[in-house]
Write a structure and sequence with these properties.
The protein is an alpha/beta fold. Helix content is 26%, strand content 30%. 36% of the residues are buried.
């Protein structure tokens, strides 16, 4: 099938490679413009752009370039912007969405599923409409959320979505037989910096879910500390206190405590919590976090 591919982040690359490997003719790849990153502010291509160029595919940042290419179908995977209705009228598209629609419509479905404590999630192959993830669903596949990190779960869903998409593209019945979404919609609100802030008023469960998002942080004695891994602890610690002992570096939360395992001090590398503590030069007798 002659396709256009619209995507931007790393998980989208999994689906792009699957389409090419399956023999589909990807006539054009549309991705978000290069962004300035790092202290030097140099322009950096999106993961999809880098992958497409390595595959020898034509790449653009303009939706208008879809015109005149004889494209049968557009495939959208985390493009990062809404597709105007005028474009969809000319080029029908399907979307690989990382949730079981209509639950978690929007831009952060994986993270919202984790924060909500969902038992399962999945992927939905849906016809793209001008509305926010409102289109009928051709196929869905389910997975258990378990205790997976957002990165691990997203990677699993990307591969699951690639397989489901290929199944839909290979089946005229599935392509023609999309079913309207059923159930009460929920919306995956945009993530902000505060979404990742672990605070003492959280429960053990809430704090661990936040850490699983992958960009969690807190403040210790006024210094920002990234939190990459934390486990429940049996050590009794008052809410908001930090205790360092034989069991490790333990932080008190609302209903118990957490032992931080891997952290990243601001401006430094990832390290064990014990290694961080050894170099932090903090007074452990009355240490609070926020």
């Amino acid at each position: 099938m002659r396709l256009a591919f619209l995507g931007t982040p790393e998980p989208s690359v999994v689906v792009l490679h699957a389409l090419v490997d399956a023999g589909h003719d990807v006539a054009l790849v549309v991705t978000r413009p290069d962004r300035r990153r790092g202290r030097g502010g140099s322009l950096e291509a999106s993961p999809v752009k880098a992958a497409a160029e390595a595959l020898g595919l034509r790449v653009t940042h303009r939706l208008d370039d879809l015109e005149g290419l004889g494209i049968e179908l557009g495939v959208v995977v985390a493009f990062g912007a809404l597709i105007p209705a005028s474009v969809l009228e000319r080029t029908p598209m399907v979307n690989v969405h990382f949730s079981l629609l209509p639950r978690w419509r929007g831009a952060a479905p994986v993270e919202r599923a984790i924060l909500a404590g969902d038992v399962e999630t999945g992927v939905s192959i849906m016809t793209l409409e001008a509305g926010l993830d409102t289109g009928p669903v051709h196929l869905e596949r389910r997975v258990e959320v378990d205790d997976k990190s957002a990165a691990a779960l997203t990677n699993e869903l990307a591969h699951l979505g690639a397989d489901a998409l290929l199944e839909v593209l290979d089946s005229p019945a599935l392509l023609a037989g999309a079913v309207p979404q059923r159930g009460q919609p929920t919306y995956a609100q945009k993530l902000t910096a505060e979404t990742f802030h672990v605070v003492p008023s959280m429960s053990v469960v809430e704090a661990r879910r936040t850490v699983r998002l992958g960009r969690a942080y807190c403040f210790v004695a006024g210094r920002r500390l990234g939190v990459l891994e934390a486990l429940p602890s049996d050590v009794p610690v008052p809410t908001g206190r930090v205790v360092v002992g034989a069991t490790g570096v333990v932080f008190g939360v609302a209903d118990g405590s957490l032992r931080f395992e891997r952290v990243r001090p601001e401006g430094s590398r990832t390290m064990s919590a014990r290694e961080w503590w050894a170099g932090a030069r903090l007074d452990a007798t009355e240490l609070w976090w926020s």
